[in-house]
Amino acid sequence: MDQATRKDGSDVWAAAGDLRIFERLLDPYLILDSDGAVVSANAAWRTLFAFPEGAAPDGLLAEQRRNCEHLIVNIAASLRAGQRRSSPVFRLDGGRSTDETTGSTAPAARHWQIFAQRVPATQDLPSHVVLRFEDVTARTLAGEGERREKAQMRSNARLRKILVQETQKQLADHLGHFEEALAFAGVGAWELDLMAGTVKCSERCRRDLGQVHADELMHASFLGDTTEQFAAHWRLLQSGQPFEFERLVERQTGRRWVLVRGMARFDDDVTVRSVVGFTLDITGRKEREIEAHAVAGEERSGRERSEALAATMDRFIAAVSHELRSPLNAIVSWAELLQLVADPNHVAKAGDAIRRNGRQLSRMVDDLLDSGAVVTGKLSANLKPIDIGPLVAIVVEDMRKLAEHKGLQLDIAELGSCVVLADENRLGQVVSNLLTNAIKFTDAGSVTVSMKVLDDHVSIQVRDTGRGIEPEALPRIFDRFEQIAPRTSGRVGGLGLGLWLARQIVDLHGGMLDGASDGAGLGSTFTVRLPLMQPGGE
Q1: What is the pLDDT, as a whole number, of residue 273?
Q2: Global model pTM greater than 0.70
Q3: 184: which residues sit within 8 A by CB, 6+ positions away?
Q4: Helix, strand, coil content of the chain in percent (nearest 5)
Q5: d(Cα 72, Cα 66) in Å, to the nearest integer?
Q6: What are the chain's domains?
Q7: Structural contact between residues 367 and 504, judged by C-beta atoms closer than 8 angstroms
């Protein structure tokens, strides 16, 4: 293996140079003939294992190479035609490594595994053995490191166990000194002997737990106030870990918070023999924690309210800027058209558009003013006896042109005479807002208004065949700046104040306003309930 040559003595490297693919393989390859002599070796093999002519390894490297040669010979001799085999991992240093201290170089430590196959003879080629050398240095060193690490972990575990045993022995020897130190520090000491079923408790511990007589200590659970807590603490004790919990104690002098902490003491067979611990009055600290939690909760609520207000304001600004721009642009455009065109038809159409958009602007301004009055608590109503039937009829007629403009049928199904205490303008505003919403969100079909007198109240109902309301949106339909259109229908013009203002006004009259819908595309129904005017009322 020091100098790979053919059996006839010719240079194997010159012959191998014609096998370009074989020569360029990254893994070291060696080819032997049926007698075990080297036929060819690729460049990777020569770089790693071949020595210059006249040079020979010595010492450890020479021994490694002899072992490798024996391994190759044994593998080649044991292979039958078509059979494959892999060798055990062996060491054969290669390449060079530099000592940082001395600057000298030496072969780098490498580990290999050989994968061999005997190729049967063919018409053109005799039988030969192909050996591939795979570098398994990283895997081998990683396995050795893992074994060393496990051994170190076992050693550390044994050391920890010894330290725990010594600590427990010292704790038993100095328990008296420990109790004296705790008493001086205002801490109560206790010990629960599980084998004897007894409790030892210092006077301070007894006072902390609110116990008057020593025999009552057996009724105080030192391992937890609940079954779940007891089980969790017992698991900690068995694993050698301490536990602690806080207990609220009712005393004649008031309520006190006490911290109870304990740890287990073990027998030689690693069973829990007793539990020792201490009690500490933490009332002052606990009260400060409760106060801090309360303050933090108030601050969190304040931030949430502030963020909600900011989000509401953003929606408000976006809605107002959009909704005011549309009618203003329409008014300006028609006004400019009037200056350019003298056609009476255009004049009438322009006047109608200007009036319609002007009324829309007026309603939005009124809604904004009323919204501000509601928020500041200044919204008022001048309650007087009014006949609600004619009022509803007037509002319906005012809205009829808007419905006809969209091609909708506006009907009054049932309308009678009924006297209630109400502000005529405010109540008309409620009916107008409900009808405006119904017409706005109905693309085809009809809007129907009805009124019924039931026992002690009157019910006004506005029903449409429009886009409807999705179930998850129903709880939000009376929120400010909230539109009730389904998500699939897109945004519809408006500030989102109509239903919110209507409910505020109805509440001001002592009534109720509810909305209902069977879902998207199935229309909506809004119902106003107002108390009837009692005989003798003003």
Answers
A1: 85
A2: no
A3: none
A4: 45, 25, 30
A5: 10
A6: 12-135 (3.30.450.20), 175-281 (3.30.450.20), 288-370 (1.10.287.130), 380-531 (3.30.565.10)
A7: no
